[in-house]
From TrEMBL:
Residues that bind substrate: 74, 80, 87, 101-102, 111
Enzyme Commission (EC) number: 4.2.1.10
Pfam families named among the record's database cross-references: DHquinase_II
Gene: aroQ
Keyword Lyase: yes
Protein name: 3-dehydroquinate dehydratase
Oligomer and partners: Homododecamer.
GO-annotated molecular function: 3-dehydroquinate dehydratase activity
Keyword terms of this UniProt record: Amino-acid biosynthesis, Aromatic amino acid biosynthesis, Lyase
Signal peptide annotation: none
Catalyses which reaction(s): 3-dehydroquinate = 3-dehydroshikimate + H2O
CDD domains registered for this protein in UniProt: DHQase_II (cd00466)
GO BP terms in the entry: amino acid biosynthetic process; aromatic amino acid family biosynthetic process; chorismate biosynthetic process; quinate catabolic process
Amino acid sequence: MPTIYILNGPNLNLLGQRQPEIYGSTTLADIERACIELGADLGMDIRFFQSNHEGVIVDTIHEARLQANAIIINPGALTHTSVAILDALNTFDAPVIEVHISNIHKRESFRHHSYVSLRAEGVIAGLGTNGYLLALRHLAPLVGAAR
């Protein structure tokens, strides 16, 4: 069964509380449950992570090199600043999908640049929390999921 790591960056632990006009009322726990459920339906093992610390995210990407068949990553604000996350993703030899709940291109200009996009096979932005599920559906045939 293929393993998919879903990585979430700073402040995403506050989904449902922080700026609901941008991010909605869905919590990170709600997203995790939906991803695990869809993953099971698609024949994938989902490993869900969140950290407010860049180094922990880098360490988790390093772990994924040995454990995961793909990564879905919403690096939050680290999208726009972290060369370290880009470098870690560049050591991962399987698909990477970048997800953003909001449309980063309709927001402040500093959010328009993504270091992660330089590595990602695809980017899903502005489709709300459904972006995570779309990324899983896209990855299923790429990683040889059973269903």
